[in-house]
């Protein structure tokens, strides 16, 4: 039901916009309506000049609002993209730091193991020599 009403409203707005685009923007370019057209409008239900002027004014306001919304959307989109790029760079920097720290810890661990191995070899050698002389 809501979809049908939305489609109907969209069709009507499209029709109004098509008609309004045909209306000249300058009053000098427009053919003014006379007294007879006002009488005919009241009989047939057609729009009066004041109603047409109001519609044109509303159309201009809507166009200005759409332009403002479009500009705001563009600014917010570009700022979102910029902030996303900054966050991406920060995450990459953190990852690089963590990788460097991991490599450093692995190097330190291997160095300590080599040192302990060397100390164990020296200890075993010393103990071997010590037992040889005491036995």
Secondary-structure-based class equals: mainly alpha
N-C termini distance:
105 Å
Question: How much β-strand is present in the residues?
Answer: under 5%
Q: What is the helical fraction, as a range of percent?
A: over 70%
Number of extended strands: 0
Sheet with the most strands, sense and barrel status: none
- The dominant shape is rod-shaped
Order of helices and strands: HHH
Low-confidence stretches: none
Rg value: 42 Å
- Per DSSP, the total helix count is 3
When the domains are counted, the total is 1
State mean pLDDT (0 to 100 scale): 80
Summarize the structure.
The protein contains three helices and no strands. The chain has 135 residues and is an all-alpha fold. The chain has one domain (2-134).
Helix and strand topology:
Layout: H1 2-22, H2 35-44, H3 49-134
Model description:
- The protein has 135 residues and is mostly helical.
- It has 3 helices and no strands.
- The chain is rod-shaped, with a radius of gyration of 42 Å.
- The termini are far apart.
- The model has no long low-confidence stretch (mean pLDDT 80).
What are the main properties of this structure?
135 residues; mainly alpha; 3 helices; 0% strand
């Amino acid at each position: 039901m809501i979809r049908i009403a939305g489609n109907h409203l969209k069709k009507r707005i499209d029709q109004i916009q098509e008609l309004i685009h045909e209306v000249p923007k300058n009053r000098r370019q427009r053919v003014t309506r006379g007294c007879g057209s006002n009488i005919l409008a009241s009989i047939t239900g057609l729009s009066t000049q004041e109603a047409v002027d109001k519609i044109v004014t509303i159309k201009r306001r809507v166009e200005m609002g759409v332009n403002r919304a479009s500009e705001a959307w563009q600014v917010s989109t570009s700022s979102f993209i910029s902030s996303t790029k900054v966050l991406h760079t920060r995450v990459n920097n953190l990852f690089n730091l963590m990788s460097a720290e991991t490599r450093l810890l692995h190097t330190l661990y291997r160095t300590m193991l080599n040192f302990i191995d060397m100390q164990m070899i020296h200890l075993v050698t010393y103990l071997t020599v010590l037992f040889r002389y005491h036995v």
